[in-house]
């Protein structure tokens, strides 16, 4: 080989090595390395405060620690009983950079095909669940109801729920109907609003996750009169106080939801290597002594499961006999009360995502039109939220409970 050829070969070899060096980082941008320098959005499908927000922030912070170089940002996205946040998680890009937590009571809604659902829980990328959390009947300390039997014999009382479709709503409605309990459900309580409402005597009780209410009870603001699931001995198990077979079957279904508590999931089809890295980071987070100490201090259980094991639990819960599904359909076949207001839009913010107008009682009301569920017409033509402007004269049909989302906006 002459000198020129030798230099050419050497030059080619160096160039190839340089290209290989440049290519190496690209090929390494998979799995754990992909998240270096990236921001992960962690959606909490309820308002700030309360159990879901607590677990969501705890998990996000610890996962960031176990995915070095990543940054986790928590975003609260409440509404429609966790459906809005879950829809957003499901519709996000399958790149591993959007995750979130939501109420597994959405299993009930998927079983009956509830309107507004844009997700399939069997297709989500399951990362883990942080706890098993039994349900409890929580009663305000100021109420004379001290036992489950007292509740049976009581005049009608108000129970809180976050919204139609939430676990608190579905479980309360099913149990009230099946066990003939004198309960009226009041929707629209998110985060810790239900606790404040009990202290103000607006409501008498709620059915919720035990870990969310232990501090409330220990501070003397409420009491437990029945529990579903768990091995605690201080509260009677509901199944021991009912004899009806259908009632017992319902209690078993509700208990299965408590076994899959405080989940973390992403949209379908996250690449396998990235999903494996997320599951590994989640496992590291759950085994992190700091997370465990903070959970214990907050009175929150840590009983984790990971990845495919959680996926199997969710899929199993979605296999129910026709009779149970029929009962669920009856429970969720609720016509949401609506009202109509006519007049100018007083304020429009965030490109139509928030509008203010005079409600039927004359008071200012601010609501959040949905980009998919709210039908908007402007001068007889179909419109979008960002077409809404202050001063437009509109007829607005809106829900009068829960999140008060407008269903129709017809502007001239």
Helix-strand blueprint:
Blueprint: H1 3-28, E1 39-44, H2 51-66, E2 71-76, H3 83-91, E3 98-101, H4 106-112, E4 125-131, E5 135-140, H5 148-153, E6 157-161, H6 167-179, E7 183-187, H7 193-199, E8 205-209, H8 210-218, E9 222-228, H9 245-258, E10 261-266, H10 272-286, H11 289-297, E11 305-306, H12 307-317, H13 322-332, E12 338-344, E13 347-349, E14 354-358, E15 364-367, E16 375-378, E17 381-382, E18 393-399, E19 406-411
Parallel strand pairs: 1-2, 1-3, 6-7, 16-19
Antiparallel strand pairs: 4-10, 4-11, 5-8, 5-9, 12-18, 13-14, 14-15, 16-17, 18-19
Helix pairs in contact: 2-10, 2-11, 4-13, 6-9, 6-13
In short, what is this structure?
With 412 residues, the protein is an alpha+beta fold. 37% of the residues lie in helices and 24% in strands. The protein has three domains: 167 residues, D-Maltodextrin-Binding Protein, domain 2; 120 residues, Periplasmic binding protein-like II (D-Maltodextrin-Binding Protein, domain 2, 3-Layer(aba) Sandwich); 74 residues, Copper binding periplasmic protein CusF (OB fold (Dihydrolipoamide Acetyltransferase, E2P)).
Number of strands: 19
Sheet/helix structural class: alpha+beta
Please tell me the total number of domains. Answer: 3
Q: Please count the helical segments.
A: 13
Estimated share of beta-strand residues? 15-25%
**CATH architecture classification name of the largest domain:** 3-Layer(aba) Sandwich
Strand order of the largest sheet: 12-18-19-16-17
Q: Terminal Cα separation, in Å?
A: 85 Å
User: Helicity range of the residues?
Assistant: 25-40%
Low-confidence stretches: 1-27
Summed over residues and divided by their number, the pLDDT gives a mean of 88
* CATH-level-4 superfamily name of the largest domain: Bordetella uptake gene, domain 1
The biggest sheet amounts to: 5 strands, mixed
Envelope shape: globular
Name of the level-1 CATH class of the largest domain: Alpha Beta
Under CATH, the topology of the largest domain is which? D-Maltodextrin-Binding Protein, domain 2
As a whole number of angstroms, the C-alpha radius of gyration is: 25 Å
């Amino acid at each position: 080989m002459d000198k020129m050829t030798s230099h050419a070969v050497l030059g080619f070899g160096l160039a190839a090595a340089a290209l290989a060096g440049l290519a190496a980082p690209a090929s390494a941008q998979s799995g754990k390395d992909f998240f270096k320098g990236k921001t992960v959005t962690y959606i909490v499908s309820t308002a700030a405060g309360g159990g879901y927000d607590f677990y969501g922030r705890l998990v996000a912070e610890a996962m960031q620690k176990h995915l070095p170089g990543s940054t986790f940002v928590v975003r609260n996205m409440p509404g429609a009983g966790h459906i809005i946040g879950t829809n957003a998680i499901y519709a996000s890009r399958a790149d591993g950079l959007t995750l979130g937590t939501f109420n597994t009571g959405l299993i009930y809604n998927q079983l009956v095909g509830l309107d507004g659902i844009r997700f399939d829980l069997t297709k989500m990328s399951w990362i883990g669940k942080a706890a098993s959390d039994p349900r409890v009947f929580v009663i305000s300390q100021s109420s004379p109801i001290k036992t489950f039997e007292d509740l049976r014999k009581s005049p009608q009382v108000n129970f809180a729920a976050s919204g139609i479709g939430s676990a608190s709503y579905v479980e309360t409605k099913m149990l009230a109907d099946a066990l003939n309990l004198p309960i009226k459900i009041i929707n629209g309580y998110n985060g810790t609003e239900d606790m404040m409402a009990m202290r103000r005597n607006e409501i008498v009780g709620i059915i919720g996750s035990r870990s969310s209410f232990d501090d409330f009870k220990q501070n003397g603001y409420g009491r437990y009169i029945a529990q579903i699931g768990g091995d605690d001995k201080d509260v009677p198990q509901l199944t021991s106080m009912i004899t009806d077979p259908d009632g017992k079957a319902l209690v078993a279904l509700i208990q299965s939801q408590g076994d899959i508590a405080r989940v973390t999931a992403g949209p379908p089809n996250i690449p396998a290597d990235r999903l494996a890295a997320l599951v590994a980071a989640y496992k590291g987070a759950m085994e992190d002594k700091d997370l465990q100490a903070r959970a214990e201090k907050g009175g929150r259980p840590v009983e984790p499961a990971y990845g495919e094991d959680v996926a199997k639990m969710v899929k199993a819960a979605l296999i129910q006999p026709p009779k149970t599904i029929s009962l669920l359909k009856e429970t969720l076949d609720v016509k949401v009360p609506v009202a109509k207001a006519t007049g100018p839009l007083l304020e429009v913010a965030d490109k139509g995502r928030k509008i203010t107008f005079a409600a039927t009682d004359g008071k200012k009301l601010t609501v959040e039109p949905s980009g998919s569920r709210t039908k908007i017409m402007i001068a007889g033509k179909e419109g979008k939220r960002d077409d809404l402007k202050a001063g437009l004269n509109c007829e607005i049909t809106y829900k009068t409970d829960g999140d008060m989302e407008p269903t129709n906006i017809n502007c001239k």
